[in-house]
Specification:
Elements: E1 3-4, H1 5-12, E2 15-17, E3 23-24, E4 26-27, E5 37-40, E6 57-61, E7 73-77, H2 80-95, E8 100-101, E9 106-107, E10 112-113, E11 118-119, E12 124-125, E13 130-131, E14 136-137, E15 142-143, E16 148-149, E17 154-155, E18 160-161, E19 166-167, E20 172-173, E21 178-181, E22 186-188, E23 194-196, E24 202-205, E25 210-211, E26 216-218, E27 224-227, E28 232-233, E29 238-239, E30 244-245, E31 250-251, E32 256-257, E33 262-263, E34 268-269, E35 274-275, E36 280-281, E37 286-287, E38 292-293, E39 302-305, E40 308-310, H3 311-322, H4 324-341
Parallel strand pairs: 4-5, 5-6, 6-7, 8-11, 9-12, 10-13, 11-14, 12-15, 13-16, 14-17, 15-18, 16-19, 17-20, 18-21, 19-24, 20-25, 21-26, 24-27, 25-28, 26-29, 27-30, 28-31, 29-32, 30-33, 31-34, 32-35, 33-36, 34-37, 35-38, 37-39
Antiparallel strand pairs: 1-3, 2-7, 22-23, 39-40
Length: 342
Amino acid sequence: MKFTAEQIAGILEGTVVGDANAEVSQLAKIEEGTAGTLTFLANPKYKSYIYTTKATITIVNNDFEAEEELSTTLIKVEDAYKAFTKLLEYYNQIKLNKSGVESPSHVSVTANIGTNHYIGAFSYIGDNVTIGDNVKIFPNSYIGDNVKIGDNSIVFSGGKIYSDCVVGNNCVINSGAIIGADGFGFTPDENGEYSKVPQIGNVIIEDNVDIGAATTIDRATLGSTVIRKGVKLDNQIQIAHNVEIGKNTVIAAQTGIAGSTKIGENCQIGGQVGIVGHITIGNNVKIQAQSGIGRNIKDNEVLQGSPALAYGDYNKSYVYFKNLPKIVKTINTIEKKLDGNS
């Protein structure tokens, strides 16, 4: 799909400087721009590229003044970065603007599906499913019995939502994510053999949640595993049964959270963090990557290490740790001198 500079300026409430009929069909970095692409200049470090870019159209700030001749058409806006982000969102909406039910797919006759929906080929929609308006379910997805999905949510290809789970409005579930698989519940008998504990709860995902590719959120043993409003989860995260994650918390890839742990609001958790079960993490907590959390954490703590220490204490300790061979050598030298003087 092609857009002219005049059309783009209309979307961004900007001003065209150059050829208003210039057309673009792709986006590009300013240093990699080619004919037919649109780019932007927001960071002054990249200013030199605007004089060499082959991009057909470039979005710039209103205060930009060319010091050399330009071959690109400009669209001047108040904030080039925000304008380009807005355009990306607009482009994404167009790209994902699919509708209807593709064949082959299975949609139960008892499912209640809203308007302007899209269900891709080889998808399965179970009994008594409720799906809101403007929901997009891409091919090879599975929506189990009694699932509820709110308005404007997206399930990308290969997403799986097991029975009885609830997904709110404006949520994104990326490819390969699994919502509502059984929690890891087994009990040993006198012979050391394990029997499965039935997992009869569900997962509740509130509004405006993003779930990354291949992330898994287990259903509760009883009750619900809960992901609160505005949570953002990266790829390949494991969230165990009966966990609760507070609103607007963000978690990076490969983090694992064991069962029944409660995480507060507005937390930031780095990649490859391990969190034990049955603890409480407060609000506004920051946990650095590869940390191990084995205790309750109070509000506003910043942690690093495994087992995790207060961030400042960890850095002080690390100074000694990396110099440990020298410290040991010095101690041995002192001991030898003391022995020789005794």
